[in-house]
Amino acid sequence: MDGAHDMGGAKGFGPVVPEPNEPVFHGEWERRAFALTVAMSRPGGWNIDMSRFARENRPPEDYLSKSYFQIWLAGLETLMIERGLVTSEEIKAGKVLSPPKPDVKTLPPQDVVPTIRRGASTERTATSPALFAVGETVRMKEIHPQTHTRLPQYVRGHLGTIELNHGCHVFADLNSLGVGENPQWLYTVRFDGPELWGKDTDPTLSISVDAWESYLERV
Amino acid sequence: MTGHDHDHHDHHHHHDHDHSELSETELRVRALESILTEKGYVDPASLDLLIDLYEKKIGPRNGIRVVAKAWSDPAYHVRLMKDATAAIAELDYSGRQGEHMVVVENTPDQHNMVVCTLCSCYPHPVLGLPPVWYKSAPYRSRAVSDPRGVLQDFGVALPETTKIRVWDSTAEIRYLVLPMRPKGTDGWSAEQLAELVTRDSMIGTGLPKQPGETA
Predict the structure, then answer these.
(1) Distance (Å) from the C-alpha of residue A219 to the closest C-alpha of chain B?
(2) CA–CA separation, A201 vs A194, rounded Å?
């Protein structure tokens, strides 16, 4: 989805302002919003790509005016409402108005550390050979999906070079739709600065993205 | 675009984050936690543990240990560059948002910088949760098109001839920058070297401290 979240190369946002001695969380609500989001992924059963889409799928003015954890909170509410875990009326009222969804798994305290330490590998066994080789020149497809994608707009249509092959990984675009993992070969594709930003660009600059095989076409 | 009802809250037309809106968010999170607890979906003790983990255990000090070891142990350096996930796991750091690690090494010829233009992907097991600036629009928009300008915002100026290489984390591969070991540190132990490593030097928006810059 070509939304406000896809920021690479956008102009006008001003300087980066680092915060000296920044705390991990700014206030108690950020702590709780973060922990609720992580803990709810087990009862919710959604995957990371569904979470990302729930956060980014909103009007630009909404995305850009919310703070980072406000976007997380809004994404969490969307995911829970979609699955019937809570209703929008309950969120508006701030209290329980309907019975819980039955047979929902929770994250018990003894599972917290093992779950985080285990993580969730996205690598899968390859079922077909890689179509592209390291060193090969490829063109990024000019596509504009209405749904979740991890192909940023600023590289679409541009020529790059395959630099790394990371093996087969769960394909985010389809995984976000709940239609299966559909693993694909994943590559790091490197672009020269001037290829992306024009001939006056710093010639020492190069940029890479990580791209699934179906984002690429042979030149 | 979908127009979920819950996005149209009372303050929909307020775009500034004034005090009252923050309080509204705070109330909203509190109410949500009590709803989810009452429904039996979350255990508040698990939430406390998650917060404690990310505030006290998972943070840049982990990455600092990795870098200091790579600087002081040549065999570890080789393993780290060959299979970063396994080498980092040797120090007992692994898991969520660090399942597939790649270490990119700075040299006199090339400086590396890491960004996630689409959201906030960041190697949690070694760096913790990302700082606000890393998640902000200014960094996400400019890191890929004007990285030298971004470095200037951090007070860093590199030679014009140094190549700049930006890694946009668009999938589940997570990148850690291995900064150059400062000169004048021959014979230093890993513990001494660790004092020179900064979080930003492992993202590529900063450089390590020089000997004498530490207390």
Answers:
(1) 22
(2) 5
Token pair for residue A34? 């973060």
**DSSP SS3 for B193:** helix
- Residue in the block written with tokens 């102009």: A11
Alpha helices in B73-164 (DSSP H): 74-82, 84-90, 124-127, 132-135, 137-142, 147-153
Show residues of chain B in contact with A150, CB under 8 Å: 118, 170-171
Residues in chain A: 219
| Predicted ipTM of the assembly | 0.98
Nearest CB partner across the interface for A7, out of B4, B50, B141: B141
- Tell me how long chain B is: 215
Q: What is the pTM of this model?
A: 0.94
pLDDT per residue as tens digits for the range B16-69: 445 555 589 999 999 999 999 999 999 999 999 999 999 999 999 999 999 999
Report CA dihedral (B82, B86, B90, B92) to the nearest 10 degrees.
Answer: 140
Question: In 3D, which of B178, B197, B57, B65 has the Cα closest to residue B129?
Answer: B57
Question: Taking chain B, what is the end-to-end CA distance rounded to the nearest angstrom?
Answer: 53
> B-contacting residues of A 182-211, CB under 8 Å?
186, 188, 190, 196-197, 202, 204-211
| Token duo for residue A197 | 């930003």
A-chain CB neighbours of B40 within 8 Å are 100, 104, 106
Partners of A43 on chain B (C-beta within 8 Å) are 41-42
> Which residue among B50, B136, B168 sits closest to A112, beta carbon to beta carbon?
B50
pLDDT digits (tens, 9 = 90+) for B111-140: 999 999 999 999 999 999 999 999 999 999
Q: How far is B70 from chain A (nearest CA, A)?
A: 22
A95, B31 contact by CB (below 8 A): yes
